């Protein structure tokens, strides 16, 4: 076989559920990436809000190298030091008392939903099984999580779905009041919808959901897969809403690029997942946990979190200046370094056009639906990289207006 990997191999050997760009990245340092031909890119995508410390950050390289020379994997018949240290750290910086480790956000959400159903069944009986979630939400790609997610484009076409899942409009307080009942076992929501268009929950909505969950003995699950680990400028986004969930899922930035997810909960509910009720072969493996511990140690620093807000201001200012020139965005929304530039009426459906044009200028972007350009860069991206990247975005938009 030819030693040079070619992009056209994708069509021959990969399941066609992705539509990757033509270039293949081969190296990354900080917020810079290089492809096979040596072309340089500035990374405003961060691997979809994953590479929170950029590429090959020294603390991550050190952690993975040191752990790779110790032990990589153990079965869940035993525990390990990195998993215990990471779990302890996560409980210290959150509401939670207990942690379950998985490999992804979808798996963390699957565990959260199973726990909620288990609590309801054992405490109140099988009739208390309704899960309320929200339209345009996204919670993963397993059959259960994609059904709870509120986007039919992702869940339709696979046959009968898991039942008793209700979807309501996000931020619609009256609709929520009308639907929740004593048969509701859990409410699952993102404190800021990511894939659904970078839409923030209002404080009033979040607090009303919490109050009514308490009234009806329903568990409140926060999906912080994308918003957690410093992405919004607080370690978890729930802190900014003044609301504490019963269960929280986290992944993406937790490992900074190493696959890991976690479900966090309290001493009140953790015992319902007793021995044998749930598990994960790779969940909590020492290699992933060692890297995640290093990531959390950096991200949780006050100066890192403050830096997220500083960088948010630079992005917002730069995007507003671009919009003054081209009148392409209707609003800039989001929090911290989870930013969405919503396209105006004239540009509806053209977010991918912006992404492709940016790629030609050496800038990596994301979309959140067909009409929102999404920015999820490293939380410690160099401010000069922000300036240069926004200049590339300016050129990209100029090429398509």
Automatic annotation (TrEMBL):
UniProt-annotated binding residues for N(2)-acetyl-L-ornithine: 141, 280
Molecular function GO terms recorded: transaminase activity
Cited CDD domains: OAT_like
Pathway, per record: Amino-acid biosynthesis; L-arginine biosynthesis; N(2)-acetyl-L-ornithine from L-glutamate: step 4/4
Cofactor: pyridoxal 5'-phosphate
Residues binding pyridoxal 5'-phosphate, per UniProt: 105-106, 138, 223-226, 281
Predominant location: cytoplasm
Domain of life, source organism: Bacteria
Keywords for this protein: Amino-acid biosynthesis, Aminotransferase, Arginine biosynthesis, Cytoplasm, Pyridoxal phosphate, Transferase
Enzymatic reactions: N(2)-acetyl-L-ornithine + 2-oxoglutarate = N-acetyl-L-glutamate 5-semialdehyde + L-glutamate
UniProt EC number: 2.6.1.11
Complex and partners: Homodimer.
PANTHER family, alphabetized: AMINOTRANSFERASE CLASS III, SUCCINYLORNITHINE TRANSAMINASE
Name of the protein described by the UniProt record: Acetylornithine aminotransferase
